[in-house]
Each structure stands twice: as C-alpha cells, then as structure tokens.
C-alpha cells in the first residue's frame, strides 16, 4: 500500500506538486497520466524516497518514509522493484547477471537458488534460456523484459514503472502490458505505472490518476476517466497536443 498525504514539492521555490492525496491499495495497478512536466516522475521519486517532499507524508507499506535515514530507506527500497524508462541494464553484465544483481547484493540466497530464481523470472517474461545474452544483443522490448525480470527477482511488494512502453511498437507494448498485469497477479504487488501511452493505461489500470500542473485533477477507473467531464482530461485522452496552455507551467 502507498499513501501520499497533503504532499507538496517545490523546486527552488517553484511548486511542482501541490496538495497531492493519493492512496494505492495493496495489489492495485495505479496508472499516472499527465502532460510532460506535470510532475509524474517527481511523484515516483517521492515514493522511492529519492526526494523528500517540501511538506506532507509519504507512506509505503504502513511506514512513513519522509523522515527515514538513508539506511532505513534502503531497507524499504528492497521491497520495491523499479522498471526504468530506458531499461537501465548494466551493459557489461549478462542478462542473467543483471537479473541476479539485487539477489546477490541484498540477500544471502545460495548461488544455486539465485540461478533457479533467475531462470524462473526470465521464463515469466518470455525470455527462457537467455541468461548468457548481453544487453547490447537485445531489442528494446527484450531489454524492458529483462528490466522487469530484474525488478521482480526480489519478489517486491511494490513495482514502479516509468514509461514502460515508451519507444516500443504496439505489439511489444501489448506484451509489456500483459506482463505488468500478470506480474501483479503472480506476486500480488502494488503497481504504479507512469505512462504517456493512453491505450496502455486503459488496458492495465485498476485506476488512473491524471496530474495537471502538479495537481491530481481526476482519479478513477478507466471508465470514469473516459467519461470525465473535466475538459482537460477529455482533451488529454483524445491527444495531449490538443491541451490548453496551463499558466505556462507544463511543457506540453
Ligand atoms: N531536481 C529538480 N530540480 C528542479 N526542477 C525539477 C527537478 N525535478 C523536476 N523538476 C521540475 O519539475 C517539473 C515536473 O517534472 P517531472 O519530471 O516530474 O514531470 P513529468 O510529468 O514526469 O514529465 P515528463 O513526462 O516529461 O517526464 C518540471 O518543470 C521539472 O523541470
């Protein structure tokens, strides 16, 4: 479970997030949408504890993380898997070593079990037997899948996805979407997905939150969002380019 309570985030006096109240329930897939510059990545970074809010509280699995020390935060982060926008694999390591990385760094798991876990996670993302491949031999979609296998290797309670389908063709996007949904099912993880891809958002979300100018302006099931009477939401889901200017803050 994740809970943000009255969160404000200012960068050099400029308010980037304002009065965010958001609860993501255990096992829920929450998709965050919004124009470029609206504050989506900032929200993810607050949940991982890479940023501390200017005011407000961030709760992760019943713990308030904003006042934690770096050591305490690192323990909480062990329960989180992160799939980055550009996969962020270690290029000098094989696929298997990438997936095993968190297990070798942070657990006492015997090597044999690590190898078994790596095999199982690669199978889950449709990359059976690819342990010895190097990242530069893989397509963008395969790299994303390795990144997902690495994120779920530690059986996280929480998986965060930053633009998981960016730069992928529709078929691969669909594959990644199905993996996000099956990952939630298999490890019962709470998931937060930041995306610009509206068809993906509608396919995978239990609920969608739209951020605009640092505020959540709409939140609800995909159907609620589709039927929103808020003109900014309606325009955004038809195509971000049709959005009105917003006080010059968002770089639409
Ligand atoms: N560390 C920082 N220092 C100063 N300003 C920042 C910092 N991080 C983000 N910002 C500003 O906060 C605003 C929101 O940025 P953020 O990256 O959260 O938006 P986003 O919705 O994720 O955008 P995109 O979709 O383009 O990734 C932007 O105006 C950005 O310039």
Short description:
This protein is an alpha/beta fold and 252 residues long.
Provide structural commentary.
A 6-stranded mixed β-sheet has the order 6-7-8-3-9-10, sandwiched between helices. A 4-stranded antiparallel β-sheet has the order 2-1-4-5, covered by helices on one side. The longest helix has 18 residues. The radius of gyration is 18 Å and the shape is globular. Strand 9 and strand 10 form a beta hairpin. Helix 3 crosses helix 4, helix 4 crosses helix 5 and helix 5 packs parallel to helix 6. The protein starts with a strand and ends in a 14-residue tail after the last helix. The relative contact order is 0.18. It has 9 helices and 10 strands. The protein is 37% helix and 24% strand. It is α/β, with parallel strands linked by helices. It has a domain of 76 residues. Bound molecules: adenosine-5'-triphosphate. The site of adenosine-5'-triphosphate has 10 residues, from helix 1. It comes from Sporomusa malonica. Keywords: ATP-binding, Nucleotide-binding, Transport. GO terms for molecular function: ATP binding; ATP hydrolysis activity.
How are the SSEs placed, and which strands pair?
Elements: E1 2-11, E2 14-24, E3 29-33, H1 40-48, E4 55-60, E5 63-64, H2 70-77, E6 80-83, H3 95-106, H4 111-124, H5 140-152, E7 158-162, H6 170-187, E8 190-194, H7 198-204, E9 207-212, E10 215-220, H8 222-226, H9 231-238
Parallel strand pairs: 3-8, 3-9, 6-7, 7-8
Antiparallel strand pairs: 1-2, 1-4, 4-5, 9-10
Helix pairs in contact: 3-4, 3-5, 4-5, 5-6
Bound molecules: adenosine-5'-triphosphate.
